[in-house]
Amino acid sequence: MATEPTSADVAQFCEITSLDPMLDRNLVVSALKSNTSLDQLIGEYYENSDAFRRKYTWDDTAFGAGREGEPNNTGIAFNIEAPDNAVIHGVTPPPDNGFYGPSAGAPSRPPSRTNNRSPLGAPSSAEQYEEDLQRAMAESKKAVGYDPQEAGVTDTGTNAPYFGPANRSDYDQNNWAMVTTATTSSQAVVDGDPTPSARKRDEGAPAFLIYKPNARSASQRLGSVLTILHEIPLARNVLLQAGEQAASYGHNSEWWKGQPIYAPHVLAAIQQGEHQWAENSKPDFHEELHRLMAFLDLTERSYGSVEAMADLIPKSNFSLERQFYDTLDEKTDVEVLKPLTHLARPLSLQTLEPTQEPTRFAFLNFELTKSQYEQTKTLYDAWNWIVWHESMTWAEVQPNMGMVVLDDMGEVMTVNIDGEDPPEYLEIPEVWYPERYLESRKEEARICQEHLAWVARALYEARSREYELTKWIDPKTDKIHDKGEMLLNTLKEYERHVDYLDGLGRFRELQKLENEDEKQYIRLEDVPCVKTEAEEALAKSAQQVVDRCSWELSQLEETKKRLDWERERLLERQKLLSSTLLTDPDKPGLAKPFTSKKFLLRGIATSQNVTYVCKRAGPALIDIGEAPAPVDQWWRLSYEAGSANPAKAEKYSFDQVMRQVHRETKGPLLVYATEDAMNTPASPLSDALQRFARAENKNFRQELNQETTDEGAQLRNTNMSPISPSKRKYRSGSVDSMATNRASLGNSDTNSRAGDFDSDPFGEGDGTTDTDMTGLAARQSATDTASRNLAEVVRSGKTHNAEQAYNTNPPSILGQQKLSTPTPIDGVEDISRTVTPDGEEQPKGPEMQERAGGGGGSPFMARHSIYGMTHDPRDEQKTIKMMDMEIPDEHQQLQD
């Protein structure tokens, strides 16, 4: 029995979902008692709030319903006979509006034929034809919930109805509005995934993993990390070898969207209603990792979701990418994971001896401060702050300081630029050498740190001298002033004083002239300057200040130029020590050759659903007789929800990648790999993983065919009303169903499968309805074929070689239009759709085949009535073997 949720849980759920704590309390309590986690309930509510309310709202009408769920207002708890509705040839019978949908009728015998007309009894008069036509239209409207139309203006009051033309007074002008009659294409893209044809993988393009917009960890970049690691053969092999290989990886038609695939025993317990959700109920971490690698290997889709994997990673304050590596390290054997990990060993700068136990890591996060990032220009600078932290911070080398060296390095390195305000531009090398940080270079590393410390001190002293030279602090106000600006302002001020005194002496001489015409046309500059003794003294003093300020400014500029020259030389030396020294193995003058491997940049993750990955194409021969040279191609893989074409795979050059990366983010996630990692042969997928990938591709082909079928049906129905109900809406897929009119239409299987729409019983028509029904019959036949194919399991005894199993290009879909079958069209999509490979289906009667055609009683499969079906003990046996599925591929069988 489920435990009663606390008031705090109810209040928390209501606060997150904005539900009313009083009015919706019973709904929230019912949801929390379902043993579902709070995060899943919140996601379920935001995905579809109406479905959430229907699922967890108590409804006791089933206790008063009949056997098949129909309402029973007479007090009788059972019905012996099915309703005797008159049969109109080719018309959908009316529903009974039962609790569980249309009534299936009595299971013991066919409906009474007393009042049913024979199919051969076609209308013999125009009056009878008109009566049947009006009746058929009324039944069709009733089936889709339309009220009968009345002519004129209806009035529900006491006044007698008035039949006549509608006048302006009969309408409220404020009630008119523009509404949409169907979901627009843009809205369809925002609300869900694009059409299957828009999700098809381009030839040669890599598949990638994304987060959906409503995912619970949508801000992380785990999908990008796994996509990049998959394009590194050695990393892919490691992830496939991690953990134990499963005999079966199950199947779920919604797995590519992020739905989990549960273990068979969990599904069996869920089906029996005995399962209590716990940590061990989740899918296996390694199995999910294997599924993702197989998906990226062989999928025909352009993208898939990584949400199922994200749900298996424990939540913490660290990023999801770091938690993934920590979980992988915790659950995986050390030797298996060794190619992805590296050893960091702390040493003493004085003795160069270890001071602490070494630490093995696979993911490195650069969490630098703002001041450190201000001095960081390249990726090597960021590494210096990590491994030479103490000497870089204090700008000196002391005996008690330490450093970190790298040892026992793997083949793949993953780093993340993080911290406080990273620089707008960080130089990211395409080739990175860790030579200077190796334990074998610890002597050179100490010398390099000593030189860097000396350069840092010299730069500090140069900045201090420049500060003292250019700044002046007012002792009264402690305000800092720029000396250059102060000298320039003083110079201009005293120059104005000198000019004023000079002008004053000239003006007095001008006033002494007696000729007014001469005064008017003479220039002031042409008048001699005659000053008094006091004015001469003031002018001389002001001129001395001007001369001194000019000299001080010239000296200041000279000193600044000299300091700038020294600082440029120091910065060049610092760049040589921090970013250039021991980074080029071909540089002449090396004391000893490089021992580290060359790491190549293989991928960059910038944001949630944007990944830059370098895909290695097949080798190409440059000249005849030469060794093949690998060809690398950069791709930009992006998913933009809401656009007409959300999934894009674009080819980029490395220069384009660098420009785009710096536009998109200041904190990229980088993945480097060695040449050995890239040249490692890819290990083949296991038979179970190949079956899983083929089943997934089969499901996608059915989606493609379903899209083609729907488009064809829309073209056939262009002359029909868009709101016209299907004429076979309530007909079962069984030929021998007694819940439909087929029992009254005769016992011909052929006629029953086609719905007897090949002939026109009324002797006339335009052929539109016949074409529509023929298309629906063909769709039903294709669906039956799809069901038979899904129920078959073919265990392949053929082992694929490494190249075939690791072909990351989308497999050929030759003959897809002929061989693939559409998905069911009943509108019910199961969550964990499985097929038992070795469980034989027991024969059933025709009626029970119809009733059990939708699957078992698992809540992760198509939902069925728990009141109208008896428990079959064979269901438990089938459920235990569920999660193994291989959908046979016809063209593969033909090739074999």
What does this structure look like?
The chain is α+β, with helices and mostly antiparallel strands. Among the domains are: 1-58, no CATH class; 439-592; 687-721 and 729-895, no CATH class. 41% of the residues lie in helices and 10% in strands. It contains 31 helices and 15 strands. Strands 5, 7, 8, 11, 12, 13, 14 and 15 form an 8-stranded mixed β-sheet that branches. Strands 4-3-6 form a 3-stranded antiparallel β-sheet. Helix 8 (233-241) runs antiparallel to helix 10 (285-298) and helix 10 (285-298) crosses helix 23. The longest helix is centred in the middle third of the chain and has 48 residues, at 533-580. It is extended, with a radius of gyration of 41 Å.
Low-confidence stretches: 97-107, 180-191, 722-896
Structural class category: alpha+beta
**Beta fraction of the residues?**
5-15%
Biggest sheet: strands, sense, closure? 8 strands, mixed
From the alpha-carbon coordinates, what is the Rg to the nearest angstrom?
41 Å
Average pLDDT confidence is 74
Using DSSP, what is the number of strands? 15
Report the oligomer.
Answer: single chain
Spatial gap, N to C terminus:
53 Å
Spatial shape: extended
Number of helices: 31
Helical residue percent band: 40-55%
Organism: Colletotrichum tabaci
InterPro entries: Ucp6/RUP1, UIM_dom
Region (Disordered): 87-168, 705-773, 798-817, 832-865
Biased composition (Basic and acidic residues): 132-144, 841-850
